[in-house]
Known about the structure:
Layout: H1 2-28, H2 34-55, H3 68-98, H4 107-133, H5 151-168, H6 170-179, H7 188-194, H8 206-217, H9 221-224, E1 225-228, E2 234-235, E3 239-246, E4 251-257, H10 261-282, H11 285-289, H12 291-305, H13 308-322, E5 330-331, E6 344-348, E7 353-354, H14 359-362, H15 367-388, E8 390-392, E9 400-402, E10 408-410, E11 416-418, H16 421-436, H17 439-449, H18 458-472, H19 480-493, H20 500-519, H21 525-540, H22 543-576, H23 590-621, H24 634-659
Parallel strand pairs: 5-10
Antiparallel strand pairs: 1-3, 2-3, 3-4, 4-6, 7-9, 8-11, 9-10
Helix pairs in contact: 1-2, 1-3, 2-3, 3-24, 4-5, 5-6, 5-7, 10-12, 15-20, 16-17, 16-21, 17-18, 18-19, 23-24
GO molecular function: ATP binding; protein kinase activity
Family: Belongs to the protein kinase superfamily. ADCK protein kinase family.
Keywords: Kinase, Membrane, Transferase, Transmembrane, Transmembrane helix
Amino acid sequence: MGFVLWILAAVSYVVGVVVLVAIVRRLLGVRVSFLRSAVAAVVALLIARPLLDSLVDEPVAASDPSGAATTEVLLYLALLTVFAFVVAMVLLVIAEVLVPDGSVPGPLDLWRSWRARLSRSGRYVEILQIATRHGLARFLRGRRHLALGTGAERRELARALRRALEDGGVTFVKLGQQLSTRHDLLPAEFIAELAQLQDGAAPIPWEQVRDQIRRETGRDPEELFADVDPTPLASASIAQVHAARLRTGERVVVKVQRPEIAHDVDRDLDIVCRLAATLDARTDWGPALGVRELAAGFAAALREELDFRIERDNMLGVAAGLADGNGGHIRVPIPVAPLSGSQVLVMERLDGVPLGAAQQVLARFDEQERRRIADTLLQTVVDQLLQTGIFHVDLHPGNVLVGADGSLGMLDLGSVGRLGAKTRRAMGQFLAAIGTGDSMAATDALLELVERPEDVDERGLEQALGVLILRFTAGGGVDGAAAFTSLFGLINDFRLGVPPEVAAVFRAMATLEGTLRAIDPGYDLVTEAKAMGRKRMTAMLGPTQLKETMEQELGALLPILRRLPHRVDRIADAVEHGRLSANVRLFADARDRRIVTNLVHRTLLTVLAATAGMMSVVLFTIKGGPMVTADASLYTVLGTTLFLVSVVLVLRVLIIVLRREEP
């Protein structure tokens, strides 16, 4: 029997806590976590009675024909209940002041975060060990080293850095690939060494490749292909490629993702994003360069590359755009969709050598032919940016094949950019303005490309952009990477936000410069882009293009012109008969109405709390009156009630102010 009573008592206590939590959360009027509310409710139930007994005497139940003792007990129980609510609310307000809700994760999130933190800590130790093994630890102390003045010393350090990045895994290899195109950031020795990361990753054994194909397709490679070469054609950071031949005789390549890299990439990208957040918060240059956004974009692009189905669709889209306009000089492989999946991609095999290892092939061409090949590649990329709208974002030398006849092939389309019609039009206008040196038109086009703030200094922007155009288009050899860096600096100086798709364009052009110079070492990207912009402006002013432009503009204006006479007639009739009026709707925006409603709500709560508090003080000072119990009058009961109402309202206002949430 005692056990049953204990169970009933426990159930009743739990029910009481749940009811108390529900009422307290309703009275506060804001979202408070159930766990925090439950803890406050339990503590309130435990301390409410001792606290109340220290303020008033607990009534003693006794038989009384008048019922005074029963009334006193009921009043005490009601006061104890309300007191428990008030104590719970006070505890929640104090907790909100000390530890805001949401700042401390829940038990499950805390356990997951600790597991992730332990994993990151192990990875930090591993990275430090890799750096130490390759002799890079001395460069992690933050001091400037003056012992790298010679080319041999820089080459040795670059070689150690490349090996460390290879040992670091996929994410760091991709980071090295990005750095290999940044001539404005690294010396030539580092660029040359990091360029080997394009296709120099250590190959994985054929048995692992075989198992990966079987897991993805459900069939052995021998069943899918007439023959497969176990020796890889290339081994990159994310996947390696094997030559094969279909049952129908077509020559293909099989791109197989490295096993178990998704977890490693997620862990390393988490470290990269955390490091970017730290730099953004603790440095002056971090926010200016947008390191947090850059890290997020790098993470999103790398995760996209892990899904080969996206690359399959990208190849089809780019191939459709290249079908016209390049005369067959640039191709992309066509995927074999039935044999492709998220981790295995089967595609047409293109003849050629990767540009990073094509010195012997390029040596067969004279300077003029090299210039023609580079012009073809640049023109194709510009056409992708301005016409088709889908372009290769990461066109580094390892992603370009050079054929014996000078034809080019684009590989690794796991990451592409897409531009809408409006952005393509603004990009074309910007390039055309650069070609003609028109700083005003270039400023207007740039403001169409970026996220424009409300208080932009257009005159200052036009002057700064004009100086930049003169600086980098005045003739002579121009470093394209430096030009893009200066343009980004100008955008940051004027607080212009760069949308992700526009940032992808700048990244693609900065990467393209290294590729163009691998074809023709003397190629000037800025000068050639200026010439293309001038040609584009001339083409826009041609009879055919002008006719098409006028037709498009008239097509857009025609519906407006049709309605214009009717609207003018209605306005004239209203003026003639004195019915013309202007109607301005105050608070038409829902956000304005919400702000005013919240202000009125909080003000009303504050006034009611103050009024109830003052009325309770007045009632406490009144002597006499009808007696509810032997010691408490009706005025005392009403004063206590109003005082508790005042406390509840004050606590509600405080929690709303502290949480900065809508009431």
